[in-house]
């Protein structure tokens, strides 16, 4: 008869084996690749390094190829729950030391169980990706597993936050789970994200490209915009995830974390009066304004390598979390193009889903003109911003800094799109289009007949700008609530934000709106 003591010893041995994953040699190889192990990542991400591991002894049941009797600890993924910033979070961490972290049915089942628990308990879900992809030995069972993961990603969307950390390879169908999540953090030089790798592309198209150039962090952050944050290493990626969670509520029924005292700091900043140049064609850095308006060291940019002509970021104002959308005049003069539309729309919809107020800073000359933009669908993509702001019911505040022209102004949360508070600086120009374009349309014949067409055009532009390129015609008809001195911006937004804390806005009952995708 087996004694209790022997059974306990057997359990201890099984636990010790599980902690070794694929073995000491595989762990050493992981470290030589400048990567943490799956367990080391979990130990670092949770408060105090403590987490409750679930399904440690799960095993595959495949008998295909050489899988019969093969022991795969935890089936290549470690799943657990614990506290991050003292809030419950569910995490799955793929174990590359166990068969390359390949995804089989039980592997996928464990990840889905984490997501299901996160959904039921209203807690964020983090997935740490480090996998060779589908476990080919399990064939369609692996495919079925991926399908369930994608299904749960969709169920969780807009209910609890989902964050993906790409800390190793993530190729083929595996790339779609991170793509379905809210934020992707990738470790530079190590993480890879693509559907078809360099070899497949070479065979299919004859194109030569390295894995880093194709699916590395900088490529995916700059060209495709697939990832939101670049990390230096595993530890940095985990720190970014922890910081990101500090801006986000645990689920869509809660408000974001509050770090204030309840007091409003009504600060005037005279430097703001001098940032916008006298020449309306001269660019300036919008970020200088944001840094002076919001709480010190509170701005966390999202996708800062992609579509730099628009800024999206989390920040705090008197300790309250807000989402920022702002044109960036030093990039494409702040014009909205296809990528900027997509970047802003996604961020707006995330903030609305998780009860994060939106503050918009406007200096937009229009949608970016050009054949490439037109054929690429700027109408459809620009409409996403119009849709996203119109559909948002969170508090929305807008500051018009300078140019606010045409449909692009509307797309930056205009009053007519449902903004709750709209204030303009004296430098604001609210108009259907810029003075140059308007004069060319309105006075075409007059300019042609003038003795000096160039001089006449300049005179008409100056007259038009003086009469229409200001905030006051818009203020007369209620398109803006007030005109403020730039130095008063923080004070204005602080009072507006506090006054909108109990905002409720009902919309017609429907399954969902049909955003122009």
Number of helices: 20
Helix content: 25-40%
Number of strands: 17
Structural category is: alpha/beta
Task: List low-confidence stretches.
Answer: none
Cα end-to-end separation: 66 Å
How does this structure look, described?
With 517 residues, the chain is α/β, with parallel strands linked by helices. It has 20 helices and 17 strands. Strands 10, 11, 12, 13, 14, 15, 16 and 17 form an eight-stranded mixed β-sheet that branches. The chain has a seven-stranded mixed β-sheet with strand order 1-2-3-4-5-7-9, with helices on both faces. A two-stranded parallel ribbon has the order 6-8. Strand 2 and strand 3 form a beta hairpin. The longest helix is centred in the first third of the chain and has 17 residues. It is elongated and about 105 Å long. The chain starts with a helix and ends in an 18-residue tail after the last helix. The mean pLDDT is 92.
